Amino acid sequence: MKKKVIVFLSLAVLLLAILPVTNVVYLLRSDQEVKSKLLYRLDPILPDLSAVISRFGISLFPSQVIIGKDGWLFLGDKYSEAITKKRVGAESEHTERARVSGATLESWRTHLLATGVKDVVLMLAPDKSTIYRDYLPEWMRPAPVTLADVFVGSVSSDACIDLRGFIAERSRQEDRLLYYKTDTHWNNHGAWLGYDFFMTEVSSRHPEITYDLTGHVSDEKTIPGGDLSLFLRLGDVVEDVSPVLQVEPEKQIDAKQIDFQSKAVKSATGNPPVGVHLEPLLVVSSDAENDLKVIWLRDSFGIALSPYVARSFREVLQVHYSVMTPAKLDALVEVFRPDYIFITGVERDITTFFAYFADHPFR
């Protein structure tokens, strides 16, 4: 720590010395007027500065990104208090919130099953810091009992399929990474393993669901750095590795994307990943395994999952769970008449976005 402080102070002094010169050169090259108030702007040198100090384990934006070992980047406290909640765990002020969120999810499930939905199941995706904790800074070690443990302990095994233990075990067995080093999310391989585990469990509960997909990594490609590297202004400097997943049986799937309210067709061919939507999006697949209808409440961890879901179910109505009040969800169920409701969410959001369930119970 003392070494990092010395490095930081040395860089600060150096920065104050060279910043005016750098800004003058930048302004002249861009044909801008040189003004004294612009001489100490950081914007032109942020990428270079971030690249230098990150090598010493220092983040230029520590609230957004924490720099781990061997080039690993982790989400900072700005988002869901990801660090503090993980370090303090079940001893924190959020413990009751996690417990109430779980209990209220059960009440959502009870209500929805009574409407004729065949099952309501949450897929809980692990944080990257849970799976690759060996690459965390020493001070960022998770507490022995986490808020996710509290949440899972407050719901039934029927209501929640907790992927944390399974993904952690597979990460120790696999030669390939399951998460991106420079992004908050799991990669295609990690998403596939999680989906396969989830669908194997769900199809065993419900014999009407056919699940015969298999997947393997056929290749990998180098890609630009992910969201965490962008926060550090290093998106053009850092690279990552993305596995290419081959799903069998191999077939052409056209997953038509339709705005559920306006009925406008957003996309008609191919089966690309589907981003996060705050308005319901209907995905209709041309040759899915099951002629079943699913409402899928999801977050950004569902992006990598979405092509696999389209392979499994003919009609999937998906939307971010944070915008679903009981009234809105009841209305969707009434109009869409789903066979199943699945929820996909990441561990760190248990007491933030997941708390939405507790704030909006069914009456």
Description:
This protein has helices spanning 2-29, 46-54, 82-88, 95-114, 128-131, 147-153, 164-173, 188-205, 227-231, 302-312, 326-336, 355-359; strands spanning 65-67, 73-75, 119-125, 160-162, 214-224, 239-248, 255-259, 265-267, 281-285, 290-298, 313-320, 340-346. The chain is α/β, with parallel strands linked by helices. It has two domains: 2-75, no CATH class; 92-359, no CATH class. Strands 4-3-12-10-11-9-7-8 form an eight-stranded mixed sheet, sandwiched between helices. It has a two-stranded antiparallel ribbon with strand order 1-2. A two-stranded antiparallel sheet has the order 5-6. The radius of gyration is 23 Å and the shape is globular. The N and C termini lie far apart (53 Å). Mean pLDDT is 87; it is low at 21-28 and 34-40.
Give structural attributes.
alpha/beta; 363 residues; hydrolase; 37% helix; two-stranded antiparallel ribbon; eight-stranded mixed sheet; Acetyltransferase AlgX (SGNH hydrolase-like protein)
SSE map:
Layout: H1 2-29, H2 46-54, E1 65-67, E2 73-75, H3 82-88, H4 95-114, E3 119-125, H5 128-131, H6 147-153, E4 160-162, H7 164-173, H8 188-205, E5 214-224, H9 227-231, E6 239-248, E7 255-259, E8 265-267, E9 281-285, E10 290-298, H10 302-312, E11 313-320, H11 326-336, E12 340-346, H12 355-359
Parallel strand pairs: 3-4, 3-12, 10-11, 10-12
Antiparallel strand pairs: 1-2, 5-6, 7-8, 7-9, 9-11
